[in-house]
Design a protein that fits this description.
Blueprint lengths: L3 H18 L6 E6 L2 E7 L2 H4 L6 H13 L7 E7 L3 H9 L4 E6 L24 E4 L3 H21 L7
Parallel strand pairs: 3-4, 4-5
Antiparallel strand pairs: 1-2, 1-3
Length: 162
């Protein structure tokens, strides 16, 4: 039987699969309030040609619209990859209570890998963090995506240089 954290991370993973299906880095996110998913998001940076089109920001925007408030103090975010500095900043700004992260991001993560913006005492809000929920499944999908991307790049004929 799945724990509640695993159940909601599966929902975030389903969002990541939507990103994968459109050749986006497979990152997915859901926001839960009172045991119910109120918002979903997935990575669409290349599709939308927008650096702001991260899974977390899409979900925060939808959750704020649903609740009618920019404060999401009684909500938990489930995300398949550790948030970047932009998303971590937005998480602090909207005062999410808790963030559950599947896999860490040593190259760009700001919830403990490079920095931990979510728990800086200098900010007026700190976020509770749970790490490693469905880590293998989420990390495996990311690895597969990047492996396929490298194979596609190798298979592309190089432009002739005259």
């Amino acid at each position: 039987m799945l724990t509640p954290d695993e159940k909601y991370m599966k929902a975030a993973l389903a969002q990541a699969k939507k990103a994968y299906a459109i050749d986006e880095v497979p990152i997915g996110c859901v926001i839960v309030q009172n045991g119910k998913i109120i918002a979903r998001g997935y990575n669409r940076r290349n599709t939308d040609k927008n650096a702001l089109a991260h899974a977390e920001l899409a979900a925060i925007r939808k959750a704020s619209k649903k609740t009618g408030d920019w404060r999401l103090e009684d909500c938990t975010m489930y995300v398949t990859l550790e948030p970047c500095q932009m998303c971590a900043g937005a998480i602090v700004q909207c005062r999410l209570q808790r963030v559950v992260i599947a896999t860490m991001n040593p190259k760009a993560g700001c919830a403990g890998s490079i920095l931990n913006l979510l728990q800086m005492q200098q900010f007026n809000h700190q976020v509770e963090i749970t790490r490693g929920v469905l880590e293998e499944e989420c990390a495996g999908m990311l690895s597969q995506f990047f492996r396929e991307l490298r194979e596609k790049k190798k298979a592309k004929p190089k432009a002739s240089q005259d």
